[in-house]
Amino acid sequence: MYADDVILFASPTIPKAHTVARVLSIFGSASGLLTNLSKCSITPIYGADEALPGIQAMLPCRIAQFPITYLGVPLSTHALPKSCWRPVVDKVAAKLPLWQGPLMQKSGRLILTKSVLSAMPIYWIMADQMPAWALEEIDGIRRQFFWAGKDVSIRGKCLVAWETVCLPTENGGLGVTNFKLSGIALGTRWLWLQRTDPERAWTALPIKVSPEVQAFFDASITIQIGNGERTLFWTDKWIDGESICDLVPTLVARVGTRTKKSRTVAQALTQDRWVRDITGGLSVLAVVEYLHLWPVITAVHLTPGVEDAMRWRWTSSGQFSASSAYKALQLGRTTFYGAQCIWKSWAPLQVKLFFWLATRGRIWTADRRKRRGLDAHDKCFLCDQVDETANHLIVSCPVAREVWWRVLSWAKCSCTFLAGEAGIQEWWEHLLSIQPHQRRKGVSTLFMITGWQLWKERNARLFDRTASSTSVVVSRIQQEADLWIAAGARKLGSLFCE
């Protein structure tokens, strides 16, 4: 396997430079791939000033000072200035088709936002911690493009808070990547590899992570003790899923920070060395904790020749995955009522987005326009009887109910209406509950067709000043159903094959 880009670390001495030059020459003779030194660079890290002229004579490369860029990632021995991250943000903005954005459906912009505009920053987050200001600017770019289609003010166009959009679909969002949580999940990956794969060359080096990443990693692993050589005595969770820090926090406060980060279980249990790690005077509480810890430690027996086994809490296999870490960071959020119906049904993404907004009350019906201080026709455009709301328009309107009855009768589905002003989710769940189980997915797709066509009819009456009878609306629904079946809505087609 050949690589286009290689980074070599070597001591800043002339013999080392001679060795590198010789290795490159041998590689070129064996493979035919000669190194173009004019495209290479030498970057001194520490202590190379005196030897640099001799090294450059041996390897005639240009001298590049930090910060440098490798595989698109800015690198430096110090904190990167803002000017180094600015090109990264500009690359994300350059991917936007500004002239196409306003012409694209919101569904198309969502796909582009979730794929291109979210994937590019993930590459940089995986390699290094991006500064908060850069992530905020990229989030602003994604938000503007999704809601407006171009780099303009989105005031009045942002129908749902961006934090909600970045939630998983089951929690009421659209599944757009949350960069902050992704940074924690991907930062945890380095800690996991450092502890479970000691063959990697960098595992002996200290890894700088944020306190959130370290806390999440500590809470997500459990360790089964073998020989105790790879488990930290004071901080790892190796006693029935708990760490000694959790069991006796007052006593652990008397242990030095460097000792807590380096003392393994095997070292600590050798001649009870862990007792000598405790320094200074002990309070009464610390003595009580010590007496509680002693029998726990004396009951531990190591197994020579068996390595310690680290398990990841959030997967059944016990192996780390970034997706499981990202999902674990979402635990505890409220489940969005109706998400299953919207996202598990067969329908074009544009229609799913409409129902996602409608169930949240975010479509531009009269009640929402009046709350925003905008001009609005007070009465429902379908029945012209009561104030227009999303729930009334789709569910409770007399015209809508007639359409529902005729469409469900055409599909030979049961239909009973709920009393009062029912919500879209309640009506949807009720309609599915009275159908045979094997027909529910098809009925759910039919539900989305019907609600979508009711909304289009409402807009036709508002903007085009044209009103269609319920028979015409039902006919359009039937024609749309035929198109959806031809496009792959098999469960919908099965409603008419029985």
Automatic annotation (TrEMBL):
InterPro entries membership: RT_dom, RVT-Znf
Domain (Reverse transcriptase): residue spans on this chain: 1-75
A family per Pfam: zf-RVT
UniProt protein name: Reverse transcriptase domain-containing protein
